[in-house]
Amino acid sequence: MNVTEYVKHLGQTATAATVYIGSASSAAKNAILATLAQLLRDETAAISAANKLDTDQAAKAGLSAAMMDRLTLTPDGISALARAVDEISALPDPVGKMGEMTVRPNGLRVGQMSIPLGVIAFIYESRPNVTIDAAALCLKSGNAVILRGGKEALNTNLALAKVIDAALAHHNCPPGAVQVINITDREVVEQLLKLEGTIDLLIPRGGESLIRYVNDNARVPVLKHYKGVCHVYIDKDADLAMGLDIAMNSKVHRPGVCNAAETLLVHADVADDFLPRFASLARDAGLKLRGCAQSLEIVPEGMTAATEADWGEEYLAMILAVKVVEDYAQAVAHIRQYGSDHTETIVTEDESAGLRFIGEVHSSLVLVNASTRFNDGGQLGMGAEIGISTSKLHAFGPMGIEHLTIKKHIAFGNGQVRE
Amino acid sequence: MNVTEYVKHLGQTATAATVYIGSASSAAKNAILATLAQLLRDETAAISAANKLDTDQAAKAGLSAAMMDRLTLTPDGISALARAVDEISALPDPVGKMGEMTVRPNGLRVGQMSIPLGVIAFIYESRPNVTIDAAALCLKSGNAVILRGGKEALNTNLALAKVIDAALAHHNCPPGAVQVINITDREVVEQLLKLEGTIDLLIPRGGESLIRYVNDNARVPVLKHYKGVCHVYIDKDADLAMGLDIAMNSKVHRPGVCNAAETLLVHADVADDFLPRFASLARDAGLKLRGCAQSLEIVPEGMTAATEADWGEEYLAMILAVKVVEDYAQAVAHIRQYGSDHTETIVTEDESAGLRFIGEVHSSLVLVNASTRFNDGGQLGMGAEIGISTSKLHAFGPMGIEHLTIKKHIAFGNGQVRE
Questions:
Q1: For B131-273, where are the E strands, in sequence order?
Q2: Which residue, A82, A343, B11, B57, could crosslink A40 as a Cys pair with Cβ 3.0–4.6 Å?
Q3: Partner B contacted by A238 (CB < 8 A)
Q4: Mean pLDDT of A230-246
Q5: Does A389 reside within a domain?
Q6: Where are the alpha helices (DSSP H) in A65-141?
Q7: Is B385 part of any domain?
Q8: How do residues A350-377 score in pLDDT, each as one tens digit?
């Protein structure tokens, strides 16, 4: 079988499985997930051994420490994965929900019902826990899923696939419900992107170049986010102590993730007071600052000069751009020009400024007086997330299990026809 | 300015306009729409004259009668367009809606708020009324829109653009809120499809080849539907008189549209009774039938033999494929194999069969005992529609004004940070 035939076969097998998984009861789906969680625990040694093959190879190939960290799956990590499966199982079933039915003037009763999307494909890089998270989320939402992990994680993914297959087989679920691609040929991705009419949604997770490649070549619907250039704006009426807390937490709590702040905007009225205190905290935390001319005047030491490129930069590191703005309007204009529609927060005691910011800034999460780090499905009460979308289509912000469904229209009549 | 620069400029002008139109009040948007409706009425003669240029040229070029019909805008048609604008103005404003706010354990109050998508592009073929419908729907939902009509309708579209521009200018709305592309160069479409990061949604309306071209080449998000291969299934427990009504209405009420039925499935238990009566009605209506072997046995005359290709065909004409199925399961399997996820109806007096059909068939509208012709935003109570999506993403079925918005997440805190 060549790659084209292989990928076509994956698609057909997935489509065939949607008939079963798409109408499986919550109990049936939860039973599969319970077995999956149990098997992950039972097979910890085998999965660890497979992961060691991957990490050994990666070490030989000289992968970066960050990449190694993403690739490594410890026994604790496997146990956390099993817990995540249990948590997904405990989520309400998103399929089959019906809202209110309304009656049209001709007596037709119309409404909507949530159904699975159908066949979902994930293309992701080294982190092998996506294999289990995505499988569990798709099963729970009644979708068939095709998983294409990074080549560095192939052994781990195949070990995880064995566990998934066993869980499906134990409950007589068609194996097409979850398929892990077992060849690393790049052409597989190319072919997946062309499976129009078969793949209902493709979700790429990984670096910007992967996501851009997918977006530029896909003929199937794609949900994605490129980057998070998130802003903290300290308003003139901010509680400055709160501002220090929120700015520091937004940046240094976990600097390598998409909801970490990348630019701090400070209202000119409070900059003289705020910036020296912030610079001192930054110095203690090992955070490097790149300031505008006015910031540099206020904090002449411990800050380097920002260039135009800094304002749009997603550092994902212990670096923060700092800019003094003349007023609220300039802060919002700056966010519009350089932001990525991901997450922005305003720190202010002026309620009307907070409400105005919420109304005028159109990012996937807009906050008043809280850290940007809350842009996360779990933190917002949505349960497990499959990613954070910055596309303003279908999902904007954390994509939860609900976003793996869509509403179809339904209608009950007693002979209605169009006049 | 070359085409690339021209299209880039369109995008920048549209983006700039989103700041105004995206936060305009309902009153401000409705005032623009009222002026637009009035100007359409006032300028009926000028618009008609421009349309005559287009129809004269089309007649010379030998366009088909169907195309001529789509292209022609009579004074009555212009009056209907003005009424449509008034109706869109009367719809509830979809922007700024907030659902329930919930409180997280840390005290953060979280919720969602609907916002415009931003910049929408429409690419459509000869029908010039889309120019006004799309402009009005986008304005009402706070979006900027770029409109690319068919080259056959250029004069009409430019006359309509003049009216739109005047309505915007009268209310000091930036002209970038609605831009009608005034050159017919094909490269414009190519460039529009690449305006990633600027166009939030592109909607193609037209023939299958246009939509396929857009889908295969777009780097911006696209919502589309290819075709409607809609089914009427006459169950063994059908009220046959109702079945005759629904099958005929689904097919002949307006055979050239996407929600018209293309295949009739009849349960074997009732085929002997139903099919001769249906064939007689079809003959009277001038409807041609293409039957399976079993249908041909029952109705030996007035029906030709269907081939495999007929089952997936969107005739958009007075032709209907007819197939006898052994049971309910075979009907659903046939729809799964050959349907286009658009619209299917079951005719049955057995309530459980109806509910099962509603649950198991995942088309954008699934009906019990009613005509497929109800798959329409107006008929389903959603107000004006911008198209019918068969993509299971963002919108599945009629796309109403709500689908030109997305929900962002919002959060109010008092200093919350991630631990």
A1: 144-148, 178-180, 201-205, 230-234, 261-267
A2: A82
A3: no
A4: 98
A5: no
A6: 65-71, 75-90, 129-140
A7: no
A8: 999 999 999 999 999 999 999 999 999 9
A299-318 pLDDT, tens digit per residue, is 999 899 999 999 999 999 99
How far is Cα A228 from Cα A261, in angstroms, rounded to an integer? 8
For position B54, which CATH number holds?
3.40.605.10
Check: CB of residue A330 under 8 Å from CB of residue B376.
no
Same domain, yes or no, for B240 and B205? no
Phi, psi at residue B410, to the nearest 5°?
-130, 155
The residue of chain A with its CA nearest to that of B389 is A408
Residues A168 and A252 in one domain: no
A96 touches chain B (CB under 8 A): yes
What range defines the domain where residue A210 resides? 3-223+399-412
**pTM listed for this prediction:** 0.93
Nearest to A393 among B115, B221, B416 (CB): B221
- Residues 146-205, chain A: which have Cβ within 8 Å of B? 196, 200-201
Residue B329 forms part of a structural domain: yes
Q: Which of A373, A395, A383, A405 is closest to A85 using CA atoms?
A: A383
In a domain? residue A390: no
The structural domain count of chain A equals 2
Residues A253 and A181 occupy one common structural domain = no
Q: Does A213 touch chain B (CB under 8 A)?
A: no
pLDDT value for A384: 83
* Closest residue of chain B to A202, computed from CA coordinates: B393
* A374: nearest CA partner in chain B: B418
- Quick one: B185 and B295 in the same domain? no
